[in-house]
């Protein structure tokens, strides 16, 4: 039933303009902010203050803006059937650095695109696919099978190939075939799957997936981020490729490349703090072992 409800809501959203839907999304985001648990809000405030050195009032403003953007992002996903018509999405989402990806595509060279939960990250994947990037979106399987079916159907609709986080063999196969593996790299992984690095001058458990895959396949890592434009659209920035060293010290190679990715992410967050999802408990694992 939930799947058909979402399809109906999507149909309704497609009847209205993107501007109207974004306005509704912002209202929705502000209303849902009220029910976010206080414990989660205070955790976000504390992390913003520690990372950015701002006062409590500014931390609250940033955290709220970080949450509110979920509303417009939801509306954008619901309007995928409209966004892919004609060249609309290329006007709504512009890109710098597409030439870096195009060079790899022309060489039939697979790659990893490392991004984060920043601004409309779902739209970033859709836009890249619509620009002709052979993109594999790596998704977590949703607990609700209806919602899992809906979101992956819409991701496929815009041109992405979807695999689950468990599909490591498929990722390796497809990167060899020239596909680009999109990975979200900013969440706190298990200590077993991460490495402790520096992020905002704090010991932080960091996801090593992009560097591990890239090193194994001798493929580049492209760091990419999406940001809001003043006219209501979005802009994607793709950074020059990062190549993982191939020395005898595999761990050091992966650590170096992962730190490069984290440095780019930190710079982006400092420039666009409202875009990053501060409500995620980013330092939970290091806090649990007494490092934070």
UniProtKB/TrEMBL annotation:
InterPro entries associated with the record: LipA_acyltrans
GO-annotated cellular components: plasma membrane
Biological-process GO terms, alphabetical: glycolipid biosynthetic process
Superkingdom: Bacteria
Subcellular location: Cell inner membrane
GO function terms (MF aspect): acyltransferase activity
Keywords: Acyltransferase, Cell inner membrane, Cell membrane, Membrane, Transferase
PANTHER family: LIPID A BIOSYNTHESIS LAUROYL ACYLTRANSFERASE (PTHR30606), PHOSPHATIDYLINOSITOL MANNOSIDE ACYLTRANSFERASE (PTHR30606:SF10)
Name of the molecule in the record: Lipid A biosynthesis acyltransferase
């Amino acid at each position: 039933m939930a799947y058909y409800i979402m399809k109906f809501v999507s149909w309704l959203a497609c009847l209205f303009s993107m501007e109207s839907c974004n306005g509704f999304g912002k209202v929705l985001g502000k209303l849902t902010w009220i029910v976010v648990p206080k414990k989660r809000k205070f955790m976000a405030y504390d992390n913003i203050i520690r990372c950015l050195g701002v006062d409590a009032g500014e931390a609250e403003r940033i955290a709220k803006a970080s949450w509110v953007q979920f509303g417009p992002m939801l509306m954008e996903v619901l309007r995928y059937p409209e966004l892919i018509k004609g060249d609309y999405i290329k006007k709504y989402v512009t890109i710098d650095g597409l030439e870096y990806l195009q060079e790899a595509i022309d060489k039939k060279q697979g790659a990893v695109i490392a991004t984060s939960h920043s601004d409309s990250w779902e739209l970033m994947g859709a836009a890249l696919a619509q620009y002709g990037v052979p993109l594999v979106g790596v998704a977590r399987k949703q607990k609700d099978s209806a919602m899992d079916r809906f979101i992956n159907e819409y991701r496929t609709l815009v041109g992405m190939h979807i695999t689950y986080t468990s599909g490591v063999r498929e990722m390796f196969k497809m990167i060899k075939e020239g596909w680009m593996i999109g990975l979200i790299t900013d969440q706190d992984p298990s200590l077993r799957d991460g490495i402790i690095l520096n992020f905002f001058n704090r010991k932080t458990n960091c996801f090593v997936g992009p560097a591990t895959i890239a090193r194994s396949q001798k493929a580049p890592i492209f760091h990419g981020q999406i940001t809001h434009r003043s006219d209501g659209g979005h802009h994607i920035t793709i950074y020059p490729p990062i190549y993982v060293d191939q020395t005898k010290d595999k761990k050091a190679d992966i650590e170096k490349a992962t730190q490069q990715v984290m440095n780019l992410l930190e710079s982006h967050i400092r420039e666009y703090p409202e875009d990053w999802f501060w409500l995620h408990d980013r330092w939970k694992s290091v806090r649990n072992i007494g490092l934070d």
